[in-house]
Amino acid sequence: MQFKVPQKRLLTNDDLEVFLTSDTYTDIITFIEDLSNSVRGLKNSDPCMKSENICDQLTEFQGSSAVVKILDEIEQYVEQAPPVANEKSRFGNPAFRKFYDVVEKNYISLQQYLPATLSSAAAEEVGTYLLHSLGNRTRIDYGSGHELNFICYLLCLKKLGLLKREDYSCLVLVVFNRYISVMRTIQRQYWLEPAGSHGVWGLDDYHFLPFLFGASQLATHKYLRPRSIHDQDVLDAYSKDYMYLNSIAFINSVKTASLRWSSPMLDDISGVKTWEKVSSGMIKMYKAEVLRKLPIMQHFLFGSILPIGELPSDKMTENQIEEMTKHNGHVHGEGIWGDCCGIRLPSAIAARQASENNGELRSIPGLLKPLPFD
Fold first, then answer.
1. Kind and range of the H or E element at 193?
2. Are strands 7-8 and 301-302 parallel, antiparallel or unpaired?
3. What is the pLDDT of residues 88-111, one digit of tens each?
4. CA angle 259, 177, 306 (to 5 degrees)
5. Contact at 8 Å (CB) between 153 and 71?
6. Hey, is 286 helix, strand or coil?
7. The predicted structure's pLDDT at residue 369
8. What is the pTM of this model?
9. Mean of the per-residue pLDDT values for the chain?
C-alpha cells in the first residue's frame, strides 16, 4: 500500500452521493455499529475483551493502552499552551492554536507508542485523523465531524491490523471514554465554540457518539428508562457507569437552562419508551445528520486507507474549485441559515464560568465543577 496524507475531496452533493455508495462509507458505519453492539448492556467499569494491543489492565480507564498513552500525552500538551487572558470574550481562546501547533509538531512521532512500527508515511496518514479529531485550529471550534475523525483513526489502525475485533468493547469503554475526557479538558481550557450554530450536527454542543454508544449500553437495563435523564438522583448514581447519562450530567454542569431549553432534541428523545428504540434510532440519526450532511462531510479526509474513487467534482477546473472553496477553504452551504458555518456561538462553558463569577470570565483551570469524565 502506498500511503498518502489524507485530503478533502467532497465538494458537491453529487460527490456526497458517490461517498454514500462507497466502501469507505460502508466501512465507517459498520465499524460504528460493531463498536456500539460490543458494549450492549455493559457498564463503563465492566471488564472488556482486549488484545495486547489495547491495554494490560483496566484501572479507572487508565490502562497501558497504546492509544490511551497517545491521548495522555496530548492532554499533557495543554500545559504547554495555557489559556491567554480573554476576559471580554466568551468565544474560543486563541491559545488553542498554540496547543494545536504543539500537537501538529508531534502527532507523527506519537504513533511510536503503537505496538507495531509504522513507516513515517503510514504514521503521517493515520496520525492526520488523530490531529483533526481535536478541533479546528482556525475557527477554534469542535463538532461531530472532528469526533468522526477519531473513529476513523481507530478504523485505520484496525485496517492496518493493529486493532482486532476482540478489542472493540475496550475501544469504547476505555479508549473512546479517554478521548472524550481529553476533549472535555480541551473544551474547558480553550472554550471551543460549537462547530455550527443551529443545533448543529451533534446532540449536545459538541458530541454525538457518546449518546449512540451510551444508548447501546442501556439497551438491556431492567429499570432505567430514557425519561430517567431528568432524575438527578439517577444521574448522581449512574453517570459514571453509562456514557449517555455521563453526557447528560456534563450538559447539566455547563448549561444554566433545563434540557428542554438547552438540548431540546435530547429532551424529545427522553420521551421514547425504551433504550432499545433510542439505540436503533441513534444509528439512523447518525447516518442522516452526520454522514449525509455536506457541511460536515466536505471536511472528511480520504487517503489510501480510507479511499474514495473518482468524483463528479474531479472534472471541475481549478478556478471553479477555488471559487467554490474561497470561504475559509470549504464550500459555503446554502439553506435557511445561508451559511454552512452558522452564526458563531460562544462556549457554554465560558458562559457558565461567567455566571459563577459575577460575569467575570477567567481562563483558570478548576473554576468549573469537576467534569464527569475526570
1. strand 193-194
2. antiparallel
3. 567 789 999 999 999 999 999 999
4. 105
5. no
6. helix
7. 32
8. 0.85
9. 84
In terms of Cβ atoms closer than 10 Å to its own Cβ (0-12, 13-18, 19+), residue 56 is exposed
Residue with cell 483513526: 153
**Backbone phi and psi for residue 302, each to the nearest 5 degrees, phi listed first:** -115, 135
Q: How many Å apart are CA 361 and CA 162, to the nearest integer?
A: 44
Residue 167 neighbours by CB under 8 Å, 6+ apart: 49, 50, 51, 53, 54
What pLDDT is stored for residue 301 in this prediction? Answer: 98
User: Taking 70 as the threshold, does the pLDDT of residue 49 lie above it?
Assistant: no
Which cell is 148 given? 468522526
> Helix, strand or coil for residue 305?
coil
Residue 270 Cα distances to 186, 259, 263, 335, 337, angstroms:
28, 10, 11, 29, 28
Statement: residue 115 has pLDDT above 50: yes
pLDDT tops 70 at residue 201: no
User: What's the grid cell of residue 228?
Assistant: 430517567
Q: Are the C-beta atoms of residues 135 and 186 closer than 8 Å to each other?
A: yes
C-alpha cell recorded at residue 249? 450530567
Q: Cα 336 to chain center, whole Å?
A: 26
* C-alpha cell at position 243: 456514557
